[in-house]
Structure formats: C-alpha cells, structure tokens
Amino acid sequence: MQAFEIMGKVDEKGQLILDEPLAIKSASRVKVILLVADETPTAKPKSKFSDPSVIQKQLEEMAQDADIQREIHAINQEFEVTEMDGLANQ
Q1: Contact at 8 Å (CB) between 47 and 58?
Q2: With a threshold of 0.70, does the pTM exceed it?
Q3: What is the total count of domains within the chain?
Q4: Can you spell out the DSSP letters for the chain?
Q5: pLDDT tens track, the chain, 90 positions
Q6: Is the residue at 78 inside a domain?
Q7: CA–CA separation, 29 vs 36, rounded Å?
Q8: Structural domain of residue 64, as residue ranges?
Q9: Would 55 be classed as within a structural domain?
C-alpha cells in the first residue's frame, strides 16, 4: 500500500471532498483514515505584515532612520572585500 497525504473537507452531506485529485488509477480501492480537528478553528486575526501598504510605510520609515542607515553602511563595508572576488560579474 502507498500512503498519500492530502487536505480536503467533509461537506454537509458527509461526503469527503479532496483539495486536489490523487495521482492513482481511478478504479483503485482505497483505505481512508481521517484526522479531524476537535473544534472548528477560529479565524486568525490578519497580520499587519500581510498588508502591502503597511509594509511599504515601514520600509519608507526605515529608509529615513539614521540608525538603520549606519547599520547598512557598516554591513556594506564589511562585505565590500567579498565583492572584489568578481563572482557578481559572471
């Protein structure tokens, strides 16, 4: 027997609906083991980091931050020697 892991849902009629088709012969007999959550998962609050406008605003603020600019400058100096190896030109 082969094992496949795939997500799906059980509809209101109790029928199993898979998220994707299985890559097996359609006439195959299968054994199904279901793992069902004890309770309906609650919706997670949307992260502010998934909002492109928030990310853009934070990037703009960081670009103006003197401490961040100093850190970027220090990092660039530290890696300056490695950029002389010529690998970027290949």
Answers
A1: no
A2: no
A3: 1
A4: -------EEE-TTS-EEESS--SS-TT----------SSPPPPPPPPGGG-HHHHHHHHHHHHH-HHHHHHHHHHHHHHHTGGGGSGGG-
A5: 678 888 898 889 989 999 988 888 777 788 888 888 777 666 666 777 778 888 889 889 988 999 989 998 988 888 887 777 777 666
A6: yes
A7: 22
A8: 48-84
A9: yes
